[in-house]
Amino acid sequence: MSIPRPSLELPAIEQSQNVQAAKKLEAQFNALDIQLVKKVQELSEHRTEDDEDINDEDGMNKDPAIVAMDVAAQIGYLRKLKFQYLEQNAKDKYVKSIVSDIDDAPIVTVEQNNELSSINEEKKAKLKIAKEKLGETQKNIRLLAPLVEQDYQQVKQATDRAALLSQKIIDARTRLMLLRQTHPRPRLTIPLADQKLADQVDEMQTLSDQVQAVKQKRKYEKACVKSGALEVENLRIEAAEAQKSVKSAQLDEEDSRLVPLYDWFSASLALQRSISNLEDSHSETENELRLTYRLESSPPRRITITLIFEADTKKLAAAEITGLDELGLEVEDLVDAHVQVNDVHGLVAAILADARAAAGT
């Protein structure tokens, strides 16, 4: 498939305009009276030293690059000739104006001098006005430069602050986007937050009331346990006295006084066990007593207190408690305090009181 070439024919109006322009240019060229055009033959015959060794055939068969270099060299040479021509022409005119007669020399009249003087005065006046304007402008620049500097600093500070605020806005938007991704809908609104806060305040008040009630109940239970412990201690003393009286009396098994005494002792022992919820008590060794108590909680819990006594003095040496880990109680300080004063009954009563308070019984 052949590609159509663009038409090289110009419209008739444009051709006529180009012809007229060419004729006008030819007329102007003929009117200039250029000496170089008239000396074409002399210019053609002129050769440089480099061109003398080149014949006509070699000159016709030059490479385009060599021809371009020759053209550039010729253009430089023509420019030199033009400069020399202008220089010689100026010298010739200057010499002729000096050595020629006065009649032939160009005459400068007074009117021309006056005209040139008036032109110079006008130019001087304009120059003076321009200098005054320049001075006034420089003065205004000196006055306005500090104000411009101050305004520039203010604008710079405002720009820096705007850039900082823009960065903060971008950071806030980024954090907000992360929060939205972390906490999808439905999100907590301000009314819901206020309602939740009010509910939490009510719940905290209710829990505070419950804590106060538990504290009152704990005080009451402590008082009850303390009184029960005193009663148990009195019962133990009475039981010991009864045992001593039984041993001293040396009664026979068929003695009628032994049965009521045994019943009384059994009832006292059952009362003690019911008060303290003692399920089991036995001696592991000669100086170690293990007591197991039952807490009436939901679910029921058991606490084992192991009392270790010194072999020679029978004083309380140490105590081990198991079953308090589930209640979250730490009684090391309490045990150490009662061990130092050799208070076995106080230790057992304090541990049971704390355990019952923690279990809510």
Model description:
The structure is a single chain. The protein has a 4-stranded antiparallel β-sheet. The protein has helices spanning 12-32, 35-38, 40-45, 56-60, 64-99, 110-182, 190-249, 258-276, 332-341, 344-359, and strands spanning 278-285, 288-295, 301-309, 316-322. The chain is α+β, with helices and mostly antiparallel strands. The longest helix has 73 residues, at 110-182. The model is unreliable at 1-11 (pLDDT under 50). It has a domain at 277-360.
Helix content: 55-70%
Q: Number of DSSP helices?
A: 10
Indicate the low-confidence ranges by residue numbers. 1-11
Distance between the first and last residues' Cα? 109 Å
Shape estimate: rod-shaped
How large a portion of the residues is in β-strands, by DSSP E? 5-15%
Radius of gyration from the alpha-carbon trace, in angstroms: 65 Å
- If you average the pLDDT, what whole number results? 77
Main structural class: alpha+beta
Task: Please trace the helix and strand order, writing H or E for each element.
Answer: HHHHHHHHEEEEHH
The main sheet comes to:
4 strands, antiparallel
The tally of beta strands, per DSSP, is: 4
Q: Strand order, main sheet: write it out.
A: 1-2-3-4
Protein name: Kinetochore protein Sos7 coiled-coil domain-containing protein
Keywords: Coiled coil
GO cellular component, one term: kinetochore
GO biological process, one term: attachment of mitotic spindle microtubules to kinetochore
